[in-house]
Amino acid sequence: MKWLIPLCAATLALEAHTTTGLKIEHRVHPYGLDDPNPRMSWRLEGDAEGLAQTAFQILVATSQDKLEAGEADLWDSGKTEGRASHARYEGKDLPSSAPVYWKARSWAGGEASEWSAATRFVTGRIDGEPTAKYISFKDERSFHTKRNELYLPAPRYYRKTFKPEKKVVRAVAHASALGIYELKLNGMKAGDAWFAPGWTNYRKRAYYNTYDVTKLLARGENVIGAVVADGWYSGYLAYGKLVGYGPHRTGRDIYGKTPALMVEIHLTYDDGSSEVVATDGSWKVTTGPEFEADFLMGEGYDARKEMIGWAAKGFDDSEWESAVLASSNGSVKQPFFDKFGKEVQEFGFIRPPVLQAYPAQPVRTIEELEAVAITEPSEGVYIFDLGQNFAGNVRLKLLGKSGQKITLRYGEMLHPDGRLMTENLRAARATDTYICKGDREGEIWTPRFTFHGFRYVEVTGCSQKPPLDAITGLVLHSDTPMASGFECSDPVVNQIFRNAVWTQRANWIDLPTDCPQRDERMGWTGDAQIYAASAAIHADVGAFFRKWLRELEDSVTKEGYYPSYAPYPFGHGKAIHGSAWSDAGVIVPHAVWKATGDPQFFTNHWAAMTRFMDARMAQDPLLKGTAFGAPWGDWLNLDDPTPHEYVELAYFTLSALLMSEMASAQGLAEQVKKYDRWVAMMRENFRKQYLQPDGTIRPESQSAYVLALDCGLLDDPAARKKAGDRLAALVGERSGPNATGMTTGFLGTKPLLPMLTATGHHDLAVSLLQSRKYPSWGYEVKNGATTIWERWNSYTAEHGFGGPNGTMNAAMNSFSHYAFGAVTEWMVETLAGIAPAEPGYSKIRLHPHFPSADAVSETDTISWVKAHHDSPHGRIAVSWKRQEDGSLLYEATVPPNTTAELTLPAVSPWKQADAKPETRTLAPGSHKIVVE
Ligand code: RAM
């Protein structure tokens, strides 16, 4: 044993600890929670070495005063023995549409902590779904049928005045829309969400958002206002226009023709009685300054038409029309075109059969970006550089004359001559228009019902060169708490990590999208499954995936297959599926369980997951791997394809392995047996069909080896070693002075570095990570990337955006696609060495992997790494460093209520390359270790 442990910062004496980090259903203080038995969690904080919970107690009350007085009128869990820092609510029925207060404390080493700070959430309609009627404007226009003509209707403004009869002590609103909406009360915006109520298959389910509007209420007359735009419901959606899907192949009105609004405000009076103000035919409706508003096409705003004070008292709405019940617009049957042909469908109002509380953090403005430069590639055309590719909007600030038209266009890249590059946006017009009102004090505008994926904004129509602060970037995304950090001695690698995190942020707009800029922005399942574990490292994505997994299940085909994207807006009941894409239905629940420790991610979906596996088995009963759905395979590989059937066998095996693990976690012994049997059969079929006597795989592609190793096709250690060696050789064969030799696509890239490390080629893995040659992550960074590109060859210095002789499709070329960013999973779990050994990190695997001092020839080999992850138990932080004397300095912070298994070589890896690893258990606290 050569480990030297000069310092263990933790003290042995027991110190007071605190109970903190309270969450309910993976959110901190949600507005709108409709689970009758929500999951409540907390964590322990304190410096005492080995701090571990022995018991907990939760108090839940209907008011803060009661909670503070210890009067838990909803639930007192009592002192409950155990280590789990989460429990399901088991108190009285939660009140509907009401604030609820709770706190928790924990015991450790015989000592109770103080009570945590009280936290609050607001319930949704626990007592049933909202019953308010959906309202619309009277829609008499004929259905849009022209594919080649854009149709962009104006959002509608709704207004209602009401006078509470008595003194209101509490007012809780639930609101939803078919479309997207913003709600106001007495001129003030309720909540801070963008794009509420999110994207669902509105024909099956919609969400409502809950707001505590007590403080927005006034005495006497009150005004509710709402603006409703097309959003996902009836706006241009995904690649519908491009490929000719949707009613009349127009790509819009996918779910219905006329957006609709639903609001109910629950007023509780001081005498205990209550009243509900809800949408009905007495509301008024009109259009406002926005003359168009569409996710893909952009927004137009005529400031001269602003209606000052429209959502407040005293505004004259006598010119406004009366709203109508959405159902009164009647039936609208139209031909719908999709992959499966033509079908006449209903585009009139259909009330979503399920209305639930929005289960995740909303999309919010997370950050503002100042412009870093302005260029003028041609006269009067100003391009603002925000310095970072992201998704969101801008705040425009300018001085203009009444009627002056300012046009904003958005792009991720510039052409070499400085022009905005928009070819890759395809049919997304991504253009906003602002018509000035001529305010001498200046004008400020932010579009509200669109977003773009961009770094550059082109501004035209100004009378003179605008100042730098004329444009501010608003970074929007689902407000998942960010949870990771990584730094090392190579700045290029640090930028790779930042690029991945930014790409996740740019694509976390209500659901995991593939890209934020072009006419796609869909929840592609292949991308999501590849990236899910990385996503869960970078952010607390529990609530986010809780929502999306419902969308995924809502889109399952009648055969039982998970679709290629979810929501699946085209097909209405039918969907394309495919190997590795459909597997998201199994892989994502597994990944989120591992990260959060919450089994509901698979228990809630177990029936659908089982049905999927059985349906897939039914089409390949001998489990040989047959073509399964669309043949995307190792998507966007570099001329090194892997057969579709092979990909199917690999992914079917992987899913069966994960199903077995999740079945075992539920104690389903028969199902464990079933999946284990399938795995054995598939391994045998793999040996027969693909594995050669010399240990090579035919047909040979880099991804064939990677998948055989990663998906569990190859279990024999000697065979794995051979496959790893051959994989390394294949990369080597293709490498050269200007080439890394990597050829893997979406499927092969994520496990490439992990499998090289696992088979003894860690130095090669590190040199690929650190390479600046083509293709690599570093090549992107060298060429200015601030996000991860869709393709290795999205841009090359030689061929620009179009590939050699324009052979590459510049239109399908996103600069913000996260699949290749999944390398960050290996960076944190393997290079830094932080991984969950048990779901939710209650047991942590600390197993860093060190490159040889001269592993990398292009640049200095990484000599130190620092990383952290904020787990459910608190921050896990590690660092390692190659010291000047060749020894290894390792430091780790292990959070309370966990244990960590640390594996380090017995002798410094830079003194003896093949020193045996040793594993030790680390208790919560800080640890500093020198390996000589
Ligand atoms: C592209 C999407 C996505 C991928 C599919 C197969 O259009 O952007 O990334 O999963 O195709």
UniProtKB/TrEMBL annotation:
EC number: 3.2.1.40
Domain Alpha-L-rhamnosidase six-hairpin glycosidase: 483-830
Positions of the UniProt region annotated as Disordered: 911-932
Enzyme class: hydrolase
Family matches, as InterPro entries: 6-hairpin_glycosidase_sf (IPR008928), 6hp_glycosidase-like_sf (IPR012341), Alpha_rhamnosid (IPR016007), Bac_rhamnosid6H (IPR035396), Bac_rhamnosid_C (IPR035398), Bac_rhamnosid_N (IPR013737), Ig-like_fold (IPR013783), Rhamnosid_concanavalin (IPR008902)
Keywords of this entry: Hydrolase
Residue intervals of the Alpha-L-rhamnosidase concanavalin-like domain: 378-477
Catalytic activity of the protein: Hydrolysis of terminal non-reducing alpha-L-rhamnose residues in alpha-L-rhamnosides
Domain Bacterial alpha-L-rhamnosidase N-terminal: 166-327
Domain Alpha-L-rhamnosidase C-terminal: 833-906
Name listed for the protein in its UniProt record: alpha-L-rhamnosidase
Organism: Haloferula helveola
